[in-house]
Amino acid sequence: MALRRPLVALLSLAACLALVSSGCSRGDANTLKVVIADYSKDHTKPFWQSLAADYTKRTGVKVDLQVIDWNSIDQQVTTMIQNNQPPDVLNLNSFSSYARDGLLYAADEVLSPQTRGDFLPAFAQGGEFRGVLYGLPILASARAFFFNKQLFAQAGVEAPPRTWNQLVTAAARIRDSGPGMIGYALPLGPEEAQAEWSIWMWNNGGDWKKGDRWTINSEQNVQTLQFLADLANRHRVTQVNPGKTNRTDGAFQLFKDGKVGMVIGFSPLAAQLDAEGKVDYGVTAMPTNEREAVTLGVQDYLMAFKKKTNREAVRQFLELYYQPDNITRWIAAEGFLPVTKAGVDRLSANAKLRPYLEVLPKARLAPTSDPVWDKVKLDVQQNIGLAVQPGGNPRQVLDGLQQRATAAAEERR
Amino acid sequence: MYPAVELLRASVSRYSITGLYQGAVGGLNYRRLVEQDALPTVVANTLMWVIAVVGVTVVISLVLAQLLDASFPGRRVVRWAVIVPWAASLIITAKLFVWVYDYYFGALNHVLTALRLAEPVDWLGNDATVMGAMIAVGVFVSLPFTTYVLLAGLATIPGDVYEAARLDGASAWQTYRSVTLPLLGPALLVATVLNLIYVFNSFPIVWTLNDRNPGFGHDTMVTYMYKVAFKSALRDVGLAAAVGVLNLVLVLLAVVVYLRTVRWQDAQA
After folding, report:
1. Are the Cβ atoms of A382 and B240 closer than 8 angstroms?
2. Interatomic CA distance for residues A175 and A165, integer angstroms
3. Is ipTM beyond 0.90?
4. Which of A114, A241, B31, B203 is the most buried (most CB within 10 A)?
């Protein structure tokens, strides 16, 4: 978007928003358009390029491979669909809106029963829209609680906290152990606030939905958000302005710099910490108010777009990806978690992944099967941070989210 | 013209969150736009952003151009140095400033605390400072273009008018006010109008420096349009297209108003 000439800037912004071409979608059976999200510079593109080459060799069908960074993939995919040039195969973190719009093949149309049966049940269920599997699990991750062992020792905190009260005590001790020390790094800025919030919410007995009803402003949730606001403003154990801190360049960066006692992380953070070797860290379960700690599992999806002549080509491409050798090779390289039974068998020997694999079966997923979630997620990202700012009002923020979620749900009916 | 027509067409259409076209809706998107709670804030931000960046840029550029027009040793090097912020990509420049402004790691806070001038400030997270921080970067990247336009303007002023002024016994300030500034008029006009359009449409700086802040509290019309389309619960390209059309109208309006004011002043003079 680094556009210097104003007219060009205007016109291309207009163009990127507004191109609506008429006519039928270009389903060319000789080329498969595959759009993949960029998980890492080192592994994503090389893997998919080699898979595409293999596929072309086997089938003679060319692959138009586009690897797109997370920041702009929503925008680019929206524009493709608006222009009536949808991909054939798409990798994204949401699927149900596409299923609702009738754009996707159901799994049965493009996967063999064996491949379909190999998905871990929780993830297969997470890809269902109205009881039919559309969002094919592509990989998963689970969050875990990271703590800095050296800072714990310095502050005289013996073990990672198991409860929220212990968390407050431990965080306060770490903060007091030296100038500039941060007890807990809380990222509630727009990047990924819904993930951080989910974990705290579940560990206080709250949830996004109860049955078909959204329960974002339940009493437990108001209490949870008040607790997070108190961490920032009353106990003062977080970094400055947690409602305006993003995860990657904020909370993670501070933890990697050894300034932070505790943060919620995932396996790619562990990989970065190992590579830098600067922080001696431990990984454990979340502090909780419940009997058992809950963590967040995140799954991403592959979707197959319905076009007149592409079904066989798409089927062959997906079958190739889901061959245990291929899918496992990629997931292992990216440091994520398997979504298939074969993948779990192969990766369970990996000691680094063990803490995450152990929590994976019990990890809870966001309500991605509900198309309303695609809006709720963005709404939470854009608004929940306001509640933990000084003078913020947790109840009011949650009431707003609840009201908009309910309105969006009604609109669907 | 084609993109403008398409923008207009999109603004009277309804789209699903996926981008799927769902039919024409007439003026509905415009009616919804007017009802958005965030709109007044965003319009006020945009006014502030455009007026401050263009105003400060022009004033500083007038000084810079005058300096660079004088001959001094090393002028060539300084002239090149002024171009640098222009040559760098806006996104890279913006990211660089994110780190300069950072509360914990930023150079700015290091300097302030080392000199004991102030306590550290969360420049990009504090509601009171984020707009100022963005405006400073906006000015920084707008200076090169503006300075060079004015420098070119200075070069067109013939030497003999200065000689005449000197013979009439004008002081340096009088010469500047009654000779240089009036003759610089056309260059100043071009610089201001182009900056007006360019700063209004500037996306990367506001987007990058403001990406940590929730809500629409510090957005300008252009980042607002993007958020409406892709990054907020609205997620609506039809509504965003309506914002786009409004943007076009606003820019044209601003330019017309500016040109009229200038001509009106000319008529007075």
Report:
1. no
2. 16
3. no
4. A241
